[in-house]
Structures are given as C-alpha cells and as structure tokens.
Amino acid sequence: MRRFGSAEPLESLTLGGASKPRTRGSAGTPVVFNENGDAPGRYDIFQYQSTNKSTEYRVIGSWTNRLHLKVEAMRWKRGDPSLPPSVCSIPCRTGERKKVVKGVPCCWHCERCEGYHYQASEFTCELCPYEMRPDVNRTGCVPIPIIKLEWHSPWAVFPVFISMLGIIATSFVIVTFVRHNDTPIVRASGREMSYVLLTGIFLCYAITFLMIATPDVGVCSLRRIFLGLGMCFSYAALLTKTNRIHRIFEQGKKSVTAPRLISPASQLAITFSLISVQLLGVFVWFAVDPPHTVVDYGEQRTQDPLSARGVLKCDISDLSLICSLGYSILLMVTCTVYAIKTRGVPETFNEAKPIGFTMYTTCIIWLAFIPIFFGTSQSAERMYIQTTTLTISLSLSASVSLGMLYMPKVYIILFHPEQNVPKRKRSFKAIVTAATMTGKLGQKGGDRPNGEVKTELCESMETNTSSTKTTYVSYSNHAI
Length: 480
Description:
The protein has 480 residues and is α+β, with helices and mostly antiparallel strands. It contains twelve helices and 14 strands. It holds the Pfam family NCD3G.
C-alpha cells in the first residue's frame, strides 16, 4: 500500500510525529497524524479591518499546532493597536457601587452614589448625616460650609447705605431741635413727644446693623429687644398725639372744658405705658425661649450637594417675628384710624394732616412688605431677601415720618426764622369753633375763592375769642 501522491510505501509515514516525516503534502507541509490518527489542524486567522482606502480581511496569524499571532498587525476601533479588555464587567470607579447581575455573580453594573450619598463599601451607598455632604470623590462625608449675610454683600450694602443716611438726617433734626429748643415751632410741636418720636425713628434705622451683624447670643438678644421697639416708640408717640387731637375737638363740641390727660407729662405717661407693653412681651419671650443661634441646613439644601450651605442665624421663627412686630403694627393701624377721624381738623391748628399722610404711606409700605416677606419663604435666597426687605421697610417707615413731620419744621427753623415767632393765645372754645366753622364754610363755599373762606373763618374766630373767657392753650401753624 502506498501513500497518496507518493511512490513510497505507507509504512514510511509516521504517527504522532514520532519520527521526522519524509513526505510533504501539496501545501508543502509535513504529513503527520496525532495519537488518535487524525491530521492536525492548520488555520489562517483573519481580522476585518477598515482603512481610509479599503475595508477587507487581513491575515494577522495562523494556527499549526500552536498559535502564531502578529499582534502589531491587529487593528481595533479608530485604529488603536492596543488590546481591548475582555472581561464581563470592568472595575467601578471611585464613588460608584457594584450592582451584581442576577444569576451572574462575576458580572455587575456600576452605579454612581447620587445626591447626598457616599460609597460606604464596594456594593453599598449610604446617606451622609444631615449637617454633612459627600466629598468630591464620594468616598466619605465632609461638613457643609456655614454662611451668613456679609457686610460686603449687595443684599446688605443698600440697606446699610439707607440706614446711614437716615441716622445722619435724624441726628441733624435732633441737634436742630435741641439748639432751638425754646423756639415757638419746637415748643408747639410738643418737645417731649417729638424727642420720643425721633428716638423711635433713630432705632428703626439702627436695627439694620443688628440684622446684618454676625449672629450670636448678644446680637440675637438685641434683635429681639429693638426689632419692634423702634416702631413701638414711633407709633406710640403718634397714636398719643392723634388721640389727643381727637379728644380735644370732640370734647370742644360738647363743653368748653378741656379734656383730661392732655398735658406733656400725661402724654409721656400714656406713651411709655404703650411702650411698656412691647417690652413686657419681649421679656416674656426671653423667659419662655432664651435667645440662641442655630444653623439652618434646610434653607439652602440644594439638589447639588456641592452648592449646599448651612445658614447661621438667630432662632427667630417667622411667627415670632410677626408677633414681635404685631404690636407695633396694631399701634400703627390704630393711629391711622385716629388720623382719619381727625382729617377734618384745619391744618392751621395741628399736625393731623401730616400725621395722616404719614400713616397712609406707612400702611402701604407694610402691605407691600408682607407678601414679599412670606412669599419668599421657600426661596434659596430667603435669608437675603427677607433681611433686606425687613430692614428697608423699617428704614422707609422711619424716613416717611422724618420727612413729613420734621423736615418742614427744620426748613422753617433754619431758612425762615421770621415765621418762627410766637402766636397769640386762643381760647379752647375758639379753636374748636374755628375747626367747626372750617367744615361748614368748606361745604357752602365751594365756588368761593380761598381768600373769602379764610377771611370769614378769621372773623368767626375773632368773635369767639372776644366772647370767651376760658382756659387758654398755645398754638402755632403746626400743632396744638
């Protein structure tokens, strides 16, 4: 028997490569058999490669008993010759946990720890404590930065600027009144009540600095005391004055006897009684809830932990704030009611009309304040908006009172001293009669020139003055 393609006998072939073969096949390779009598496999290894010019299969190796691979001839995505990983799942990056594929324990998906979670172990993420946030790598937690309203912040610069102007203007008015303390205008405006009112205006401006200062126990205590005290001083004084004007003219319509408690000492006693209610409420507040600071981590707890901040502030809730200002607002509303009741009194005798305009404007300011203050309670900028709104509202209220009630007087004192002269004394009944005549003449003198009405009023006042011998009161062009 001979081998195919050869004249040599079959026994010249070898099995399993035991001896060097003496016959080669048509491919030029030795003809051999393994121990099972099978010819060994011979393979060419191709890779489908794409180049700029063509796309084709290229030989990158072969198999003849063992692998012969030309690694440098291999090409992968985008021409990268480096070997791609051949694994079920690649290792997870820092801050990611492994989520094992069900039924395939050696394979997993990588999930990033989101929000305020950090990587606690290879397979779990855990939530950071409330006052902390995950670090940049999400391998642990770090404290959330604490912020407060800074003096250089735009939210603080504007209120401070207004307050400084107001303090300077108020100090100027106080100095002017002190230097001209015995002049008719200062005396007629009620020196004692004027100084109380100016003190309240000064405190309304000064509270801005306490609201922006770094919170601590001392600052929080002063905030509680002075937050509503400035308004209380102002509106208690204005309420006492408007109530006095109302009582005088109401009493004058019934009797020639002056009403009780209209002396300066009585007015001061009434004013400080009203103020003492505010102070009593503050002391009760101190006893029930001593002042302290808190760090509010919920106010600026954003979805992105890197933007989260803790806000350092006094432990004063919105309800406590409204209760602190509520009494002053009650005084303001009551004062407005009396200002409306006394709006018919002629301005020749008192400050009813300037007080009325002051209270109307102040009410508008605080009506605008309430929706802005409470409408921003869910805003991330809540601390800035509410503090700025509150301080500006207090400063505007003080500015309205200062501008409408005292600037005209200061103008006359400084630039028209010839008008700052004593007026003759009038009887109580003459003043009230003149006020009544003003209303009547105003109704029947609609088509008359102003001069005729004024002349008739003056004649009526002269008649009443000469026929009445009662207690006299001083008056000027500005107040009773």
